[in-house]
Specification:
heterodimer, A: 340 residues, Formate dehydrogenase/DMSO reductase fold, two-stranded antiparallel ribbon, B: two-stranded antiparallel sheet, 14 helices, 6 strands, globular
């Protein structure tokens, strides 16, 4: 395994980590907005304001997930095959959630019938909560290790995925994304929605710091050999501590940067901690899938690298531009002139 | 039921469903882009109203295509892990590139298009829908790149150490003749489907003398696109047939229920198979037509199922290498029949438009709505079913059989749960999408004069 880190396999491991970071950073606040929908959206117009803060950009945020999935398939077929077949039922629930949530954004305001709108609003809530929880559970299992057999297949079944540690990671990710979403709303909405989001972000920041601290300590206890590197988790907890203060001072721009960096630090910490494993076997360490034994050929990795080097910067440019175009706050006056 | 059969049903149901919506997207994005171009150039309000009206129907359809597409990407790993391990070195790259090149473009620029009416200048706004249109086409290209490789593996070597297919030449994969016959066929299909839908909806309004100015323009536009696109579908389909005879002769033979090699070969019009005795009980056929379809002359030899089966046994060992003939034979015929019907409808639309009687042809307006739209969906579903069922028993042609490609650790119960789950979810989506589509289609265009008017009605 002494192959060093200067190779294409490691580069693609890093790129996939970057894609997950991008996904959780961006879709993290989308999930948060969806989870907060019933709590901050007191009436239909409020809820429309909330949805429209993420309206133009949520779909592209979700593409980070699809790209992470595609990149995993292309660069590490063994990892893709084991993970997607192993996390079968949780992934189905995630798909169920993402399907209804995506359609709900597009469809909810296209009919005035109250039952129609309420139904889609609940689907947005559930469709945001479930993935926020289940991605945390999935990454909890990646950190903890899974029952991978000699053939590289996951053989632990469904219930083993719902272990206390991974569920705690799921709860932590829900709280963190909810906080991220509340701070996002405090930045992007105006009026009552902004005020309620700002108020709610204060207790959420305390809760997020607490659950993240618990899950970090638990992670250290679960792994026997300093599994997670020291700096990143401390950075993550420290940043959340700062967020408690920033939300009290009303400095939401900085608070958003800090929750964003927390997500970066946590995901980076998980990936650094796993390396060079991508799926750690709890049956026998030799059965673990690593960046080297799960990867595609050098030729495929080279082609993918060229494509990524050209197109990732372009994607970043136009996606940033779309955030710039929709930089203004969204208020009730922006959504009340519907002609439906 | 065997696990692999359950997984196949799941793939079949989710793919055919996805493929009901995606062809509309492939064509309608371009057609809406053309309408908006007309508005930006002429500033005539009717083009803006057309853009908004058809644009809304586009969005109702687009959403379902997007969310059902996520299932497709995940499904390879979930249900077909053995396949994914075997081909991932080649098959994964197009999926990743599709996400990076196409999905980001589609999602980002569609967001800009929906929400940017007031925030972007008309020209920049117009550019966003063209980007979406380009993105959908790029998406079709990369997913067909992946599918074409399954149909006709090229540019690979079998690595005995890793036991998988590995990439040898990316350019060979990119220049696969199956890809370059599938891709244009699919794009024409997209335009044909979208224009059939637009023509049908416009016909409904014209028959009721509603929104006559906009609907007449829309119907004329859709009629021309329909005629050109369906002719394109037929021509590219003909080319596909020739490629198929060359690289997947069993698929062509099964499409024809051609048991014995013939020279010249006749095209079967109606047959009742007799699989027990490897022959047809009844067969009505057109002499020499299959030779013409297969190789552009009236006299060439077309290989039959019995010879091809024997050849496969000699090459790959014992086994049944014959696809489900009932499905291949009839899906092929229904696809072609529906395609012919659509050519006719497109031709009539253009004919009546040129004569200036389009708005008065009561019978034709009914035909365009009640036959034209269903024909498109039936043809699309049958085409897809044919091309996928016709390559069975192979998942990667000549390399890996479907029966050994599913996920070994996924129990049948999980597949049943998710199969029922997807079916119910997709049923609910179909009801919601159908309800909204009909509602907005019937409501017709509004009275918008400016981009600001449109902006208010586009937000979520």
């Amino acid at each position: 395994m002494e192959q060093g880190i200067w190779n294409l396999e490691t580069l693609w491991f890093v790129l996939i980590a970057v894609l997950w970071i991008g996904f959780f950073f961006l879709e993290g606040f989308d999930f948060g907005v969806g989870i907060l929908l019933p709590f901050i959206g007191k009436d239909d117009t409020d809820r429309r304001v909330m949805i429209n803060t993420i309206g133009p950009t949520w779909d592209a945020n979700e593409v980070w997930l699809l790209t992470a999935g595609g990149a995993t398939f292309a660069a590490f077929p063994e990892w893709y095959a084991t993970m997607f077949s192993g996390f079968y039922l949780p992934l189905f629930l995630i798909l169920f959630a993402l399907i209804f949530r995506g359609v709900a954004f597009e469809y909810r305001s296209k009919d005035k019938l109250p039952q129609w709108r309420t139904t889609w609003d609940w689907l947005i809530f559930v469709g945001s909560l479930l993935p926020a929880l289940l991605f945390g559970v999935a990454f909890g299992n990646l950190v903890r290790g899974l029952e991978i057999d000699a053939a590289g297949e996951y053989v632990g079944g469904f219930w083993a995925l719902l272990n206390p540690f991974s569920l705690a990671m799921g709860v932590a990710s829900v709280v963190l994304f909810t906080l991220h979403g509340a701070i996002f709303l405090a930045l992007k909405a105006s009026g009552d929605v902004r005020d309620r989001a700002a108020a709610l972000s204060k207790p959420l920041a305390i809760a997020a710091t607490a659950v993240m601290a618990i899950s970090m300590i638990w992670t250290y206890l679960t792994s026997d050999s300093g599994f997670v590197p020291g700096m990143l988790p401390i950075l993550a907890i420290g940043l959340l501590g700062v967020v408690i203060w920033l939300t009290r001072e009303g400095m939401f721009g900085w608070a958003f940067a800090c929750t964003g960096l927390t997500i970066v630090a946590v995901v980076a910490g998980i990936f650094v901690g796993m390396y060079p494993n991508v799926m750690t076997s709890t049956i026998n360490p030799d059965y673990s899938l690593t960046v080297f034994n799960a990867s595609s050929t050098t030729m495929t990795l080279q082609i993918m690298t060229v494509v990524a080097l050209i197109f990732v910067p372009i994607v970043l440019v136009y996606q940033s531009w779309s955030y710039w175009v929709f930089r203004e706050r969204v208020g009730r006056e922006d959504v009340t002139a519907s002609t439906t | 039921m065997e696990d692999v059969l359950l997984a196949r049903w799941q793939f079949g149901i989710t793919t055919v469903y996805h493929w009901l919506f995606v062809p509309i997207t492939l064509g309608i994005t371009w057609m809406v882009a053309i309408m908006e171009t007309a508005w930006v150039r002429t500033k005539k309000p009717e083009y803006l109203r057309m853009t908004k009206f058809w644009g809304k129907l586009m969005l109702i359809n687009f959403a379902i295509g997007v969310v059902t597409g996520i299932v497709q990407e995940f499904q390879f790993g979930m249900n077909w892990s053995t396949y994914s391990r075997f081909v991932g070195d080649i098959f994964g790259a197009p999926l990743a590139i599709e996400a990076l090149l196409a999905f980001f473009i589609e999602s980002t620029f569609l967001g800009l298009w929906i929400f940017g009416w007031k925030k972007l200048s008309p020209k920049v706004h117009l550019a966003t829908i063209w980007m979406v249109a380009f993105g959908t086409m790029a998406s079709a290209f990369f997913i067909l790149l992946a599918n074409s490789w399954m149909q006709y593996p090229t540019g690979y070597i079998l690595n005995p150490v890793t036991g998988r297919a590995e990439m040898q030449s990316f350019s060979e994969i990119l220049t696969s003749k199956v890809l370059w016959s599938h891709f244009p066929h699919t794009i024409f299909v997209g335009f044909a489907t979208a224009s059939a839908v637009i023509l049908g909806v416009a016909a409904w309004h014209l028959a009721r003398k509603r929104h006559v100015v906009i609907m007449r323009k829309s119907a004329a536009f859709a009629g021309v696109v329909l005629l050109v696109a369906t002719l394109g579908v037929a021509l590219t389909g003909h080319y596909q047939g020739q490629v198929m005879v060359e690289v997947q002769p069993m698929k062509m033979a099964s499409a024809e229920a051609l048991w014995d090699t013939e020279q010249p070969a006749s095209f079967s019009l109606f047959a009742v198979g007799d699989k027990e005795n490897n022959r047809n009980a009844i067969n009505l056929s057109l002499p020499r037509a299959l030779s013409l379809l297969s190789c552009n002359n009236l006299d060439c030899e077309v290989q039959g199922i019995n010879d091809l089966q024997a050849a496969s046994v000699a090459e790959f060992g014992d086994g049944d290498y014959i696809p489900n003939l009932f499905v291949t034979y009839w899906s092929f015929r229904i696809m072609i029949g529906m395609g012919m019907l659509m050519i006719l409808i497109g031709g009539l639309a253009v004919w009546f438009h040129v004569r200036g009687t389009l708005t008065r042809e009561k019978g034709f307006l009914k035909l365009a709505l009640w036959i034209g739209i269903p024909a498109a969906f039936v043809a699309n579903a049958m085409g897809w079913i044919f091309t996928e069922m016709g390559r069975q028993p192979w998942i990667a042609y000549g390399l890996l059989k479907t029966e050994v490609s599913n996920s070994p650790t996924v129990p049948g119960a999980w597949i049943i749960i998710t199969l029922i789950g997807y079916t119910l979810i997709y049923l609910a989506l179909a009801l919601a999408a159908g309800y909204l589509f009909v509602k907005y289609a019937k409501a017709g265009p509004g009275e918008e004069e400016t981009a600001e008017d449109v902006a208010a009605s586009m937000v979520y």
